[in-house]
Amino acid sequence: MHSATLEWRCPAATDLTHLLFVDEHENRVQIRDLIEQELGWQITAIDAVSSGVAWLEHEYPHIVLTSVRVDGCSGAELIEHIRSQVGDVPIVLLTGDGDDRAALKALQAGATSYVPRELVASDLIETLSRILAAAQMQTRRRRLNTFLKCSEIEFELDNDPVMIAPLVAALQEQLASLGVCTEKEMLRLGIALEEAFLNGIHHGNLEVSSELRQSDGERAFFQTIEARRHESPYCGRRLRVHARITRDEGTIVVRDEGPGFDVANLPDPTDPENLTRVGGRGVLLMRTFMDEVIYNAKGNEVTLVKRRTTRPNA
């Protein structure tokens, strides 16, 4: 019996891919034969969710194919159990007429993709092959990252705030891969980075003050931001982000092309009189969530430092 959630194991080049097939539909034998003939995979066919759960106590599939409804049970029940036992194993659903709600619930529970039964002949083999290949690539990339010693990346962005979320995610991934931050620290780290990038765009490149947000409200603030994104000289300015990440710490330098500001003039956001003010909150969050926050003399560049809090194999 598995004592804890295990990381999904991608099949080695010499392994026979093992598929767990959970289905009670009348055409399940034809589906099993199709997979065996086209892919040559080893298949364990089960016609009840309870049997699938019991099998998973002792075995590890490389991929799962399950009906949305099996033996009166929702496929979501099996998927939740798989996620708790085997982690990120790819799961493909077989759906039929009237399965829309159950399929959505199963996808929300962690299924990877789905194939309608009427499209099995044309789509199933391609879907299974593609999903397994993607899972293998993700696993190998995670393994490759365990050998990574240092990462240095640089971005030069325009003032489109839509790009901030993927930029934050990219840096979080690098910091996590090198062990600088734990999963618990990831959200706080992301908030600090987001604040630094937003400050660089909003207050730096576009020169839109928090005072406008405080006095005239959110709508006026964001309308001004959108307008200046297309006006000279603001539209030509860029946000530069340089990150150097080792296994000991991550250093992210954020530089805008605005006029800068005097950090000493920021109101203290921890002062009770200033807690309801918008200005300065981003700086407070950065200083709270990062180990160091250093501004240059001009005020258009901030360096954020996050140090590793745990030692490898500690």
- The CATH topology of the largest domain corresponds to Heat Shock Protein 90
H/E element string?
EHEHEEEHEHEHEHHHHEEHEE
Name the strands of the widest sheet in spatial order.
2-1-3-6-7
N- to C-terminal distance: 27 Å
**CATH superfamily of the largest domain, please?**
Histidine kinase-like ATPase, C-terminal domain
Rg over alpha carbons? 26 Å
Architecture per CATH nomenclature, i.e. the level-2 architecture of the largest domain = 2-Layer Sandwich
Describe the biggest sheet? 5 strands, parallel
pLDDT averaged residue by residue: 85
Quick rundown:
The protein has 314 residues and is of the alpha/beta class. The chain is built from ten helices and twelve strands.
What does this structure look like?
The chain has helices at 28-39, 49-56, 75-86, 100-109, 120-145, 164-177, 183-205, 210-216, 218-228, 281-289; strands at residues 18-22, 42-46, 63-67, 69-70, 73-74, 91-95, 113-116, 150-157, 239-246, 249-255, 292-295, 301-307. By secondary structure, the protein is of the alpha/beta class. The protein has two domains: 18-145, Rossmann fold (3-Layer(aba) Sandwich); 150-307, Heat Shock Protein 90 (2-Layer Sandwich). The strands form three sheets. A five-stranded parallel β-sheet has the order 2-1-3-6-7, with helices on both faces. Strands 8-9-10-12-11 form a five-stranded antiparallel β-sheet, covered by helices on one side. β6, α4 (100-109) and β7 (113-116) form a beta-alpha-beta unit. α1 (28-39) packs across α5 (120-145), α3 runs parallel beside α4 and α6 packs antiparallel against α7 (183-205). The chain is elongated. Mean pLDDT is 85; it is low at 1-6.
